[in-house]
Amino acid sequence: MTGPVNRPPAGASDAEAERPAGPWGDYIAAAQRLDAVRRAATTSASEQAATVQAARQELAAVRARLAPQRARLRQDLGVPESDLVPLEPDLMAATQAVAGGPAAALAALRQARTTADAADAATLGPRTRAEWRPWARNLLVYGPFAGAVLIVQIVLYLVAPSGSIPTYALLCGLSLPVLAFGLGWVTIGFVYGGPGKVDRTPLVGVVACLTPVLLTCMGVGVLALFRG
User: Between 102-123 and 88-97, two packed helices, what is the crossing angle to 10 degrees?
Assistant: First the structure.
């Protein structure tokens, strides 16, 4: 014979309604509560493990995003290394942000990646010429003057008498590159000048202004070779 069955209060579940009375019923109730706790703990542990894994992936993504930004700040913009080291208030704020466990750390890392995305959008957008590297910026000035030298040399070669070509070549080869370099030097100071010292990259200017002379000499030599 089975023991008497408890009469549960109104609204109780079917399992509670069928639970036997006495010690055996108390044992079943305790086992059911333990099983519920186990299930809840397993679910919580699984969710926490998934959160930890997501936080690790987010951390790797943030590190990959910050590395090129750090290099760009140092190399392109000349930011000192000491300015890129977090200060004590920054470390305290980061510690407080991740103090709530894996979920809080994941949220903080996602916010950090959003900030890094915004920084990339701001720094990788279209640059003004003042933000370009000095050699590229200055080449936009030296280049047109060097092009003008090349055009003048070609015109003089075409209109000069055949016997005076060496004289014209000597005069143009000495004077026009110097003139182009001087005009480029003055123009860079006028366009990009400011309170600080302007980097005119003289080596880039010399190479750019001498290139037309080399091209002209090569062209004259090739023509002389074919005519001979």
Answer: 130
Helix (H, G, I), strand (E, B) or coil at 20: strand
Q: CA dist 113 to 59, 74, 97, 127, Å?
A: 9, 20, 14, 23
List of residues 6+ apart from 164 with CB closer than 8 A: none
DSSP reduced 3-state for 18: coil
- Name the residue ranges covered by the structural domains of the chain: 23-123, 129-223
87-123 confidence digits (pLDDT tens): 788 778 777 777 777 777 778 777 877 877 777 666 6
- Give the whole-angstrom CA distance, residue 187 versus residue 107: 52
CA distance 155 to 194: 38
The answer, as to whether pTM is greater than 0.70, is no
